[in-house]
Amino acid sequence: MANTLQTTSPTYAPKTNKQFGLRLRSRRSSRQLAFYAMISPWLIGFLLLGVIPLIVGLLASFTNYDGLNVDAFKWLGMRNYSRVFQDSEALYAFQRTMLWSALNVPIWLILSFTLALILNQGIRARGFFRTLFYLPSIIPAVGAVWAWRLLLDPNNGVVNAIISIFRPGTAVMWTTDYALQSLTMIAVWQGAGVGMVIFLAGLQGIPRELEEAAFLDGATTLQSFRHITIPLMTPVIFFQLVLAIIGSLQQFALPMLLAGGRMGSVPPRAAYFFVVHVMRQIFTFSRFGYGLALLWMLFVVVVVLTIIVFGSSRFWVHYEVDIAGDK
Amino acid sequence: MKEKLPNRDHLSRRAFMRLAGISAAGSVLVACAAPAAPAQPAPAANAGAAAPAAAGVNIDYMMNDAELTDKEIEQFQGENAGIKITRIVPDATKYFAALAAGTPPDILRLQAPEFPLLLARKIPLNLQSFIDTSSVIKVDDLASANNYYRSSGGALDIGAGDVYGMVKDWSPDETIWANLDAIEEAGLPAPSLTEPMTYEDVKAYGEKLLKMNGDRVAQRGFDTNMPWVERFWTVWLEGQDSSLFTKDFKKMDLVENEKAKAAVKYHYDLAASKVSSSPISPSPSWPGQDFANGELAIVQYGFWFSGGVTLWANDKIKPKIDAGRIVMLPSPTWQGVRRGPTITATGSIVTGVTKHPNEAYKVFEWYNAKEPALNRAASGWGVPGLKSMFDKIPKEGTYRSQVWSVLEKEMTFADTTVKFNPYLQGGEPGVVASLFIQFYEQALKGEMTFDELLQKLESETNVAIQDGIDRIGA
User: Does any domain span residue A1?
Assistant: First the structure.
C-alpha cells in the first residue's frame, strides 16, 4: 500500500490540485448560474418595466409630448427643466411638500417608536394593543380619508361638534385651513402601526444580556435606554428615516382624497404637494413632458437628501459588526 | 492576535442599509417612468357601411359598467357571434397608455368639451359613411346634442357636418332642482315651475336659504358642480355674443372682457358668501349628495339628476320626491337670454386607428340606437340621443310628470352647440375650471384680490393654450 502510494503520489498530487481547481471553478460557475437564473425573473421584469420606461420617461422629459401628439412632438432640450424654476406653483408645491415632510417624518418616527417601546414591555393584552395599533394600516386609504373627512367636516363633523359643546357654532376648517396638520394626523394614524411593527422587531433583536449587564452595573432604565436601546436601534431608525423621507416627498394620495378623490380634484392650497402638481400638469394640462421633468427633479432631490442622510449616518448610526472590517 | 478579515459572504448591516436605501430611491425613479413610446396612429379607415362581422373580433369599449352592463354585452354577443365586447372602465391613465402603445380602445367614452381637442388630433373615426347607409341611425333622427360630435371641417367647425360620434344620452344641464319645503320654511315664495328665473334670482334665493349656526353652515342655499363652471360661462357668454376666448381660441379674453368677468364673479360671489360650497366652506361630499341629504336647498345638475336624486335621497327627502316637493325648474336666464343646451353631452366615438371599423361601428350603432339606448331612455337618467326615443322618457306619477313638463319645454331651448377650445383639455374639470378651483381659495381668503385672480386665470390659461398650439403644431 505504502509503495503504491509512494509511486503514485508524485503524479497524483498535481492532478488532484488541478481537478480541485476545476471543481471549484465549476462549483463557482454553477453557483453563479443559479444566482443569475434565480434573479432573472426580477431582472427581466426590472429591465422591461423599470429601466426601459425610465429611459423613455427621461427622453420624454425633454419633449413637449402630451400623450396625443405622437406625430408632432418636439425636442425641447432643457426647456422643461428650466421651466420648473419659473413655475411659481411648482416651487410653492415643493415648499409645501418639504414642510409636510418636516412635520410628518419626525412625528411618525417618534410615535411609532414610542408605541413599539410600550408594547415591548411585558404589559397585559400586548397582542390586543399590537393589533389595535396596526389596524389603521390595513384600512384602505380611500376609506380612511373618507372617514376622516366626515369627522373633520367643519359643519357636520364630530370634532367640531365636540368643540361646539364648549363654544357653540364653532366651524374650524380642518380640511382647508389646517390641511397640513390634518393630513399629518391621518398619515401618522395610518402609518404608525407599520412603523411600530418594524421598531418592535428591532427592539426584540437587542440582546437581553446587554441590558441585564447594565442593570447589574447599576444603570437606571433611562440610562439603559439612552446607552443601549437607542444605539442598537439606530440602524432601524436610519432605515425608517430614509423610507419616511422618500414616502413623504412622494405623497399624493392623501391630499387628493382629502379633495374628493376625483382625477380632476384640486387639494386645498395648504396641501398642494409636489406630486399633486405633477399629476395636474400631466392629466389636466396634458404636459406629459413637463410633468416628467418635474418628477426627475424630484428624483434628484430625493437622491440628494438620501445621500445627506447616508452621509450623516456615520455620526449617529451604531453598527454591531466592526465597520472597519467592512471597509 | 487574530486578524479580522473582511467577510464578503454575509451582508453587513451597513451594506443592507445601503441596498435598502438604493431600492427605496429606485422606487422614486420608477415613478419618473413615462408610458412607452407612442406609435404613429394609422390613417382612419372608413370602411363604408357595416359589413358582416369577422370571426373572433374583439371590440374594446371604454365605458362605465353602469352605462354598459354585462347583461347588455351578453345579449349583443348572443346575437352577433364573432364579435366580443370587452368593457374597459374609463381611466385617463389607461387611455393614454393604450394610445401611446398604439392600441387605444376601439370605442371611447367622452364628453362634448373633450371632442374638439381629439378631433384636432385626428383621433375619432369619421362615421358619416356608416350613418349614410345605416338602417338604424338616420341623421334627421339625431337629437341636437349630437351636434357636438359633428364637424364640417376642423376642430373649430363643430356643430354641423359629418358625424364623428353620438351622445349616449344628454341633459339640459342648467336646469335646477329645488326643495320646495326648504323654500317654504324660509318664508319665500315658491318659484315658477314653468317660467325661468334669472341667475340673480337664484342667487337671491340662495342667500335667503342659507342657514347658519354660529360659524357653521346648517343648510346651504344654492350649489352647482364646480368642474362645470367654465362650461356655464361659455354658454352664458355665447348668449351675449361673447366668449372666454378670442375668436381663434388662441388667447383668453377675460381681464378686459366685462361680460366674462361678470360670469366669473357670479360663482365667486356664491362661494364668498358661503351660499355654495368652496374651500372656505367645504362640503364633506358633493352638491348632489348634499341636496339629496336635505342639506342644500337648490342645486344645479340638469335633467340627469332626476334619476340620481331618487337613488341618493335619504329618508327625509324620499317622501318629498313622491309628494312633488322636490322639483326640477327651468334653466335660469343669464342677462335675459333663455337657453338650455347640454354642456356634458356624454357620448362615444370610434377611434380612427381601430383595426375593425365595421365591427366597431356595429357595436357603436347597437349601443346608441338599440337595446342599451332604449334601456337608458326608459331609466330617466338622460334624454335619448335619438328623437324617435323621446317617447320612452318616463312621464308617469307626480314626480316624473312634473320633471317631464319642464323638460319638454326646456328641450326647445336646447338646440345650441357652444364652442369649446380645441387647444385645451376639456375634461371635468377642464383647464379653466381647474385653474379657477386652484386659485380662488386664495382670493376667498383675501390672499389675492378678485382682479388678481382673473389675471392669474388668464395668464395661466394662455400658457396652457400656447402649449396646446405648440403640441398640435397649429
Answer: no
* Continuous segment of H or E residues that includes residue A303: helix A288-316
Q: Are A18 and A124 found together in one domain? A: no
Domains in chain A: how many in total? 2
Cell of B136: 338604424
* Segment A224-239, tens digit of pLDDT: 999 999 999 999 999 9
- Are residues A34 and A138 located together in one domain of the fold? no
Q: Are A60 and A296 in contact (CB under 8 A)?
A: no
The structural domains of chain B, with segments of one domain joined by +, span: 57-171+343-413, 176-342
Contact (CB<8Å) B282/A169: no
Q: By the 8 A CB rule, do B25 and A246 touch?
A: yes
Which regions of chain B are under pLDDT 70?
A: 1-55, 474
DSSP designation for A169: T
CATH superfamily for domain B176-342: Periplasmic binding protein-like II (3.40.190.10)
- Does A234 fall in a domain? yes
Please name the residue of chain A whose CA is at the shortest distance from the CA of residue B14: A319
> Would A134 be classed as within a structural domain?
yes
Cβ A58–B29 below 8 Å, yes or no?
Answer: no
Torsion of CA B84, B90, B94, B100, to 10 degrees: 80
Residue in A50, A239, A302 nearest the CB of B17: A239
The closest of B185, B210, B188 to B197, measured between CA atoms, is B188
Q: What is the CATH number for A102?
A: 1.10.3720.10
Residue among B427, B305, B382 nearest B145 (CA): B382
Mean pLDDT of all residues belonging to chain A? 89
CB–CB of A326 and B33 under 8 A? no
CB B378 within 8 A of CB B394: yes
Which residue of chain A is at minimal alpha-carbon distance from B31? A295
Domain that holds residue A21: 14-60
CATH topology of domain B57-171+343-413: D-Maltodextrin-Binding Protein; domain 2 (3.40.190)
B158 φ/ψ angles, rounded to the nearest 5 degrees: -85, 145
Write the secondary structure of chain B as one string of H (helix), E (strand) and C (coil): CCCCCCCCCCCCHHHHHHHHHHHHHHHHHHHCCCCCCCCCCCCCCCCCCCCCCCCCEEEEEECCCCCCCHHHHHHHHHHCCCEEEEEECCCHHHHHHHHHCCCCCCEEEECHHHHHHHHHCCCECCCHHHHHCCCCCCHHHECHHHHHHEECCCCCCECCCEECEEECEECCCCCEEEEHHHHHHCCCCCCCCCCCCEHHHHHHHHHHHCEEECCEEEEEEEEECHHHHHHHHHHHHHCCCCCCECCCCCCECCCCCHHHHHHHHHHHHHHHCCCCCECCECCCCCHHHHHHCCCEEEEECCCCHHHHHHHHCCCCCHHHHHCCCEEEECCCEECCECCCCCCCCCEEEEECCCCCHHHHHHHHHHHHHCHHHHHHHHHCCCEECEHHHHHHCCCCHHHHHHHHHHHHHHHHHCCCCCCCCCCCCCCCCCHHHHHHHHHHHHHHCCCCCHHHHHHHHHHHHHHHHHHHHHHHCC
Q: What is the ipTM of this complex?
A: 0.84
Q: Each residue of B247-298: pLDDT tens digit?
A: 999 999 999 999 999 999 999 999 999 999 999 999 888 999 999 999 999 9
The rounded distance, in Å, linking the Cα atoms of B54 and B33 is 38
C-beta atoms of A286 and B467 within 8 A = yes
pLDDT of residue B43: 35
